[in-house]
Design brief:
- Two copies of one chain form a homodimer.
- Chain A has 419 residues and is mainly alpha-helical.
- Chain A has a single domain, classed as Na+/H+ antiporter like fold (Up-down Bundle), CATH 1.20.1530.
- Chain A is 82% helix and 0% strand.
- In chain A, α1 crosses α13 and α8 packs antiparallel against α9.
- The two termini of chain A are 31 Å apart.
- At the A-B interface, α1, α5, α11 and α13 of A face α1, α5, α11 and α13 of B.
Chain lengths: 419, 419
């Protein structure tokens, strides 16, 4: 088998089947179906399968096939974020812009500071080989402040919160916060590689891109849709919209902000109540969830080794990282939400939701690992933090705000769990 | 841009947009929408873009990104063939098995003989560097007798013939014939590499796989579906069915027959009128046509250089290949169809349909090129033959059997052109 196709087919089939099985089992523990896929990915990686059957594991997915799986995973994330954008009810946020900005930035500044403080303590033992303290500190600051936008979106969909005000606020805060975090990451990478110029360009271009999408493209699409016959719009518009989403993803990737944001923005500028948006959602969401996201979960699992984190020398550090990350992120978000007028429960729920780090975190960590900013061990410890905060989201959410969730879950959860 | 993602995103967007545009223009010339995508792929390859702007062309899709595009293309073909299998009305063939076998094998034996004869003439000038006459002749025989199963399926869908008896016969003949052709190909490759054993194993295992799918898996699925609540079946069965299709594709790929056949068989064993089949079709067909098949068309275009074929020394050979391929394939199919009782028109239409070579042919040719069996020039000439027979299918079909097509096209064509 020279071609990567058989390996990719087998990996996808394994994650899909195991993910469904685990999803059913974990549903009893209150976890949304997506967690089944995440756990399936980890079990098929070095944490379990790689240890039990290393030969089979490297035959299943040799190094060359991984880069192909990665492409599928990234394409899946791009399309999934496009669907999430299509689903974003911007009007749910009307009059709340200030509060979103306050929440998202409190949720960045405080964990960022915590990350910098942590970096000072971890530098001697856990820094990468190619970095000085300022670069390492900057990177750790960013790594602590990421919110996992796509997994957050999946959790909101799975728990039926997507269409609530809380869901819209969480998603938009995460999106706004992540654009800032990606800019900071560009700065951190710039600091590590002494090219501040490139980092500033990323910030300027990203802002310009967001502006163009909202001020130019959004009204244009509205006008085009108003002109076209509503029934004919999906027919002629679907291919153009998908191509547009791919191009927007390309633009943000070229700018230096993750491709997923461009796709998300492309979805967000399509009016949420239009037939075009509904057609695109129905067309893309089920196959992307079923076929492409498993590639991502396989990839995440492949790069996570839970056994390393459990070693005596490192387990304590892992706990410190998890506690610090959760307290700084959820605490700061809660405080900012309360200060901008949200109730105790909604603020607590928002804090818990923003603490989900998931896949975005891992993308950032991998960048740090490949640039020599963090050591492989710290990489694994940070990945464990990402896993724990992600797995903890739903149980904590049930704990702090049971009413919020169960009231809205029943109406929409069926449509999403079937995918 | 180190990652292949931007290149793949841009290529997909280009084929989707250009393909739609050309599809609309070519619709006037009676070509189904799929031809727009094929031509878009060729224009974006070395034939046009590579000549006009070689720098831009190699920036658009560098060598490293091609293998990633290839994976998407192959995954697209696997899923598309699964959908085609799901759509296969086996009952339309009841009592016609003998006729299908006669037609499919006449459509192989005669072009195979023509290919062997042609090979004797072409050997001195066009053979690859690593082959003797028997290996070259065997390979050319196979290359002349391939029918492009997936493009044939698209053409049948686009012209509304999928659900007619003619469509079912064409698809099943092509499928039956192609299994034989792939077995012959394994033999040819074995001859070229002196490992007849492996070729025989391929044949035995492929036959065993088909038998297991039809005799064991098919009744099993029927019984499972009968047991499950009909409404609940799609919910619980979709993920299992998709994973099953991926595993079946994997099995045939491992056996040495193309992955697409396993997926096709996996689709064919799901009862065509079940809710599960309908759910799977609706879930997969539109996104696969919209997003993954363009990757395939880009790949085909990338490997085709029409200008080489037009050079004075080669153009005559190209014409001989095209005429010989068409006359032997369509002629033999027509004769066999008439002899097994089909009417003149249906037999002629079947001959024309089986002459479509398209993408399967190119997969085979590429194998021959990479093994050193055919020269790069002969590769291009054979690709031109594949293109011409593919592009010629619809116009010839209109010519020989206008009534067959227009009568059935209207009812189903809308659903497929929107995808």
């Amino acid at each position: 088998m020279d071609s990567p196709l058989p390996h990719v087919l087998l990996t996808l089939a394994a994650v899909i089947l195991l993910g469904r099985l685990l999803g059913r089992l974990l549903a009893g523990a209150g976890q949304p179906p997506v967690i089944g896929d995440v756990v399936a990915g980890v079990l098929l990686g070095p944490s379990l399968l790689g240890r039990l059957a290393p030969g089979f594991s490297s035959w299943l997915l040799p190094a060359d096939a991984v880069s192909h799986l990665e492409l599928l995973a990234h394409l899946g994330i791009v399309l999934y974020m496009f669907v999430v954008g299509l689903d974003l009810r911007m009007d749910a946020l009307r009059g709340r812009t200030r509060s979103v900005l306050a929440i998202s930035h409190a949720g960045i500044v405080v964990p960022f500071a915590a990350g910098v403080a942590l970096a000072a303590a971890l530098f001697p033992r856990y820094a990468g080989s190619a970095v000085d303290l300022p670069g390492f500190a900057m990177f750790m600051g960013v790594a602590m402040s990421i919110t996992a936008f796509p997994i957050l979106a999946r959790i909101l969909a799975d728990t039926g919160l997507s269409h609530t005000r809380l869901g819209a606020m969480a998603l938009t805060s995460a999106a706004a916060g992540d654009v800032t975090a990606w800019c900071l990451l560009a700065l951190a990478v710039g600091t590590a590689h002494a090219s501040i110029d490139a980092a500033l360009w990323t910030i300027v271009l990203a802002a310009a891109f967001v502006l163009v999408m909202l001020v130019v493209v959004r009204p244009l699409i509205r006008r085009l849709l108003a002109r076209l016959d509503d029934a004919a719009a999906p027919q002629s518009g679907v291919a153009a919209a998908v191509a547009g989403a791919l191009l927007a993803a390309l633009a943000t990737e070229a700018i230096g902000v993750h491709a997923a944001f461009g796709a998300f923005l492309a979805g967000a500028v399509v009016p949420v109540n239009s037939r075009l948006a509904a057609t695109l959602r129905n067309l893309l969401e089920p196959p992307v969830s079923l076929l492409l996201l498993p590639a991502f979960f396989a990839l995440v699992g492949l790069r996570t080794d839970l056994v390393v984190a459990a070693a005596p020398g490192h387990a304590g550090v892992a706990v410190v990282i998890i506690v610090l990350a959760t307290v700084s992120k959820a605490g700061a978000t809660y405080a900012a939400a309360r200060m901008t007028g949200l109730g105790t429960r909604e603020a607590a729920a928002l804090g818990v939701l923003m603490n989900t780090r998931g896949l975005m975190e891992i993308v950032v960590l991998e960048l740090g690992l490949s640039l020599g900013v963090i050591s492989p061990t710290l990489f694994t410890l940070m990945v464990v933090m990402a896993m724990v905060t992600t797995l903890g989201t739903v149980p904590l959410l049930r704990l702090v705000a049971p009413a919020l969730q169960s009231s809205s879950a029943r109406s929409t959860v069926e449509g999403t769990t079937s995918s």
